[in-house]
Amino acid sequence: MLGSLIAGALPSAAADEPAPVPVDRFEGEVPFANPPAEGIFTWGSDADDQPKLEFKERADAPEGSKVLQGSYDISGWGGLSHEYAVDQAPRDWTASKGIRFWWYGQNTAPLPPGSGKRINFEIKDGGANGGASELWTTSFTDDWEGWHLVEIPFSDFVYRADYQPVGGIDQVLGLNEMWGWALTLPTGAPGTFAVDGMELYGKADPALKAKVLTDAAVYPVDEGGTAQVKISVATTGSVPTEEPVTVEYRTGGGSAEAGADYEPVTGSVTFPAGTASGESRTVAVRTDKDGSAESAETVPLQLTVTGAKAPAETPQVVVNAHGLPYQNARLPVKKRVADLLSRMSLAEKAGQMTQAERNALKSQGDIASYDLGSLLSGGGSVPTPNTPEAWAKMVDTYQLRAQATRYQIPLIYGVDAVHGHNNVIGSTIMPHNIGIGAGRDPRIAERTGAVTAKEVRATGIPWDFAPCLCVTRDERWGRSYEAFGEDPALVTAMETVIQGMQGARNGKDLDRSDKVLTSAKHFVGDGGTGFGSSSTGSYTIDQGITKVTREELEAVHLAPFAEAVKRGAGTVMPSYSSLDIIGDDAGPVKMHAHAEMINGVLKDRMGFDGFVISDWQAIDQIPGDYPSDVRTSVNAGLDMIMVPTNYQEFTRTLKDEVTAGRISEARVDDAVSRILTQKFKLGLFEKPYADTGNLDEVGSAEHRAVAREAVAKSQVLLKNDGAVLPLKKSQKVYVAGSNADDLGNQAGGWTISWQGSSGEITTGTTILEGMKRAAPDATIDYSKDASAATDGYDVGVVVVGETPYAEGIGDVGNGHDLELTAADKAAVDKVCAAMKCAVLVVSGRPQLIGDRLEGIDALVASWLPGTEGDGVADVLYGTRPFTGQLPVTWPKSEAQLPINVGDAAYDPLFPYGWGLTTSGRTPAGGELTLRAVAVAAKVLQATGRGRSEQARELVGTARLIVQQKIGGHITEASAKPFAEADHLLLTGDPAGAVAKLTAAYRAG
Q1: What is the 3-state secondary structure (H, E, C) of 374-386?
Q2: Rounded distance, CA 942 to CA 958, Å?
Q3: Which of 207, 896, 968, 980 is most exposed by smallest CB count within 10 Å?
Q4: Which class for 676: exposed (0-12), middle (13-18), buried (19 or more C-beta within 10 A)?
Q5: 522: buried, middle or exposed (CB in 10 Å: 19+, 13-18, 0-12)?
Q6: Share of the chain above pLDDT 70, in %
Q7: Burial of 586 (0-12, 13-18, 19+ CB in 10 A)
Q8: Is residue 271 helix, strand or coil?
Q9: What's the average model confidence in pLDDT over 392-397?
């Protein structure tokens, strides 16, 4: 038989089985191609991890003349997929028993079954297309040498819980809408593989076409109440059942006592053949009331199914905890915490200190099994569909699982909503922090925080990993746009965002449906890492080493966190980076291991009483083995660990370390007390589920109006020769550039997905669309690459800049630079040579444009405005004036970096704080007027109004006078005092600011 197979025959079907159905012959009939087209493609954690593929003619091919073969060397993860075209109908595999293929084994020595390299095989079920389908997975081991037939019945596939791009559709393997398959190849060593003759085989098991479901996995009920467990049958394709389905049920096996805590129930229900899919029966489980205070008790309802697939887990009725002091909302939080903590086991405490990514759960039941305290959605970890309503339902589903624990401690769910609820399609996407810093308006910063909080909490999420209080000191850093600016005084001034998100500083507003817990990040110094100091993969600066004196550490990097503690920030997240304090001879220390900074400075000196949450898998970067990582980080002051995937090992290791005495019980109790305190303040014990009353406000016109105002204030006018801006609605405008009509580009990273992406990724208005709405009767023509004729236009607007990125992937030197693309440069050159032009740079950091500055009439730093392009149009057409100021120094060249306000040598293209205005005529009088302004500034400062709005307006007047004098002739002599003036104003020294501006005026 083997001889006939190698000669080219497929396995023959048994007499009573249908003929096999080919899936892939690997003769080249399905090409190498990427979605949305049909094809076979590779993927991996980076370019090196993608396997190399070819269709290879081989004499030993089991089927046809060619096979698919490849090589790989995977350090992270990698594999290949065949996905069907998105514009074609999915395939129906319901008639078959399973899928099989020939695999060429690489082992030259006999191996016991199961001991070879493990290969994961997945199929793509349901959904809109292969990229939006459920993944169902199984695996096989390469234990043999030469060709071997791998047969996998569909009953072996399980729903993939560790990673699911869509977050689940129905978690039923329907098989009637199949979009393809994928192979995940083994890591750790180079390898080769070959596969051939993939086909569907056999006759489907009728039981696989039906599945018994319950409407929930957990049924909480108050003592004395009755739980109603709904049992239903679902079929592939929603057709009637082909055979009868019987479900026998009985209670028992939980922590509740039959006859004392509940009345035992036994019986059965039958769904006859022909029953409609979705039909249900209800089983009632009545609980008894004894009146004594108790923890929660469980009553499993055991189900035995005949004729269909049984539920993946046993449903549980839970008699709610009742009568215990920690449940009394009238007691002070401190007493509630103490009572609950005194009841908890070490395992329960370890669970509270654990945060897992939702997709990492092996099953949702692990929330209760491991007493998990927190879940998060990483960037792009979203439900399907990605709507506000689906988010609320998803979080509630997880929250329900926590009700199956002894003390029903609710989860605290977290998300990176760093510029609006940015994972959710249709939400209001704010300018990134760099743009908020450019706006220089603490009130608008607070309002953007309030909008974000309202939208986040409406989806059931009480915790936001924001704001980033980093002080960006080198714009080669891929996180530069997450900072409010390069000046700690500016960052501190924008921390009103914390009040917008949390409300009152004492936390009394946290239980409101429009407030969330904040996370001040990343403590401390992540914006000061040296270029080339990173040891994380190909990163050049992110997660590197911040080498500073103690004086610089205090003044630059610690100051914003001191302010955050004063403002009541509920959590703090350490940085991935290392801190190397000059003169202490300790060398670089990972911040997640830095006890002096976390315990000593943050908690003891600053008095931070919230809890410290680690960054994503960050403790794994601490030198040493995993037990060492756990004890070092927890002893350094971390209270909760964002594991985020290996929660089983973390909880086990933490318990072992405590049992061995290497982590004290007092340290664990302190951590858990801090976590529980915030959960009580958030009102989660009383209201664990989403309050959806504000769901209709997610992405509302009112919220977008706040974002639009923030966008307008963030626009920085750097040059405006000939008063090109504002535009007139009567002008004929030629628009060009890559970022004029791209919503994804103007939103940047951390938008819908972690790295962000170009295109129409959510709901919003591009800059071009905003311009057309602002001047509906004007002629506004768009040519992205400026290839259209330029004759006959009054003015050109060229919108250029960056495409999205996040974190270290965006580091300069890691595939990124500060140059405009060749296409953008060509568009600028062509348009600005043909007519008066305004160039808008949409980016998260300054771009090197000095060599083209002379040919540009007007230049605008547009930063990353988010979804509201109308705000850019507002200042372009003069509905609002330009008022923004540079939050970072704009360099002449990359060689100048790092360059920051206060540097001894300071000769930028545009200084920190620079920003022209279109608000009106600049006051006359020159230095005489500056003297009068100086007198007024001294009076304000003497009367305690140095940080007032009047002081800002007064210094703003002086700044306009100086900018008019300097014009386009910025020199080191004028730039240095000009930049330092803005720093002094932000510190509450308007008199000193005017003195610096006077010096800049004289040097101009």
Answers
A1: EEEECCCCCCCCC
A2: 19
A3: 968
A4: buried
A5: buried
A6: 97
A7: exposed
A8: strand
A9: 95
- Of 464, 514, 709, 807, which one is the catalytic site residue? 807
Q: What is the pLDDT of residue 4?
A: 33
> How many angstroms separate the CA atoms of 421 and 798, rounded?
29
Please answer whether residues 59 and 94 qualify as being in contact, where contact means their C-beta atoms are separated by less than 8 angstroms.
no
Question: 171-228, pLDDT tens digit by residue?
Answer: 778 899 999 999 999 887 888 999 999 999 999 876 667 889 999 999 999 999 999 9
**Mean pLDDT throughout 113-136?**
88
Rg (CA), the chain: 31
Distance (Å, whole) CA 385 – CA 116:
39
> In this predicted model, what pLDDT tens digit does every residue of 599-617 receive, in sequence order?
999 999 999 999 999 999 9
Reduced 3-state DSSP string for 124-176:
EECCCCHHHCEEEEEEEEECCEEEEEEEEEHHHCEECCCCCCCCCCCCCCCCC
662 token code pair: 């290497």
Residue 726 amino acid letter? P
Please say whether the beta carbons of 90 and 130 come within 8 A: no
| 829: helix, strand or coil | helix
| 85/417 Cα distance (integer angstroms) | 33
Hey, what amino acid is at 627?
A: P
**What residue has token string 């049909």?**
38
* Cα→Cα distances 808→543, 615, 841, Å: 8, 14, 22
At residue 166 the predicted structure's pLDDT band, cuts being 50, 70 and 90, is: low
CA distance 683 to 864: 35
For residues 472-499, give the mean pLDDT: 98
Cβ within 8 Å of residue 698, ≥6 positions away: 388, 421, 424, 426, 427, 428, 455, 458, 459
CA distance 858 to 624: 55
- DSSP code of 723? G
- Taking residues 614-637, report their average pLDDT: 97
DSSP 411-426: PEEEE--SSSSTTSTT
Among 337, 461, 353, 340, CA closest to 398: 461
Q: Is 355 helix (H, G, I), strand (E, B) or coil?
A: strand
Tokens describing residue 154 = 């569909």
pTM of the predicted structure, to 2 decimals? 0.87
* Cis amide bond preceding 524, omega within 30: yes
> What are 107's two structure tokens?
């082992």
Tell me, what's the pLDDT at 112?
67
DSSP string computed for 421-469: STTSTTS--PPPHHHHHHHT-HHHHHHHHHHHHHHHHHTT--EE---B-
Q: Is 901 exposed, middle or buried (0-12, 13-18, 19+ CB in 10 A)?
A: buried
Q: What is the pLDDT of residue 144?
A: 82
Give all domains of the chain, ordered by start, each with its CATH number.
21-204 (2.60.120.430), 210-323 (2.60.40.2030), 336-682 (3.20.20.300), 715-888 (3.40.50.1700), 897-1003 (no CATH)
Phi, psi of 249 (to 5 degrees): -135, 150
Task: Note the Cα 393 to chain centre separation in Å.
Answer: 19
Catalytic residue, chosen from 125, 297, 474, 615, is 615
- Per the document, the length of the chain is 1004
Q: Annotated catalytic, 807?
A: yes
State the sign of the Cα–Cα–Cα–Cα dihedral 752, 758, 761, 767. Answer: positive
Please give the Cα distance from 629 to 244 (Å, whole number): 55
In degrees, rounded to 5, the angle at the alpha carbon of residue 394 between the alpha carbons of residues 89 and 671 is 140
Q: Note if the bond before 644 is cis, omega within 30 degrees.
A: yes
Q: Sheet of 316-319: strands edge to edge?
A: 218-221, 316-319, 297-306, 245-251, 266-271
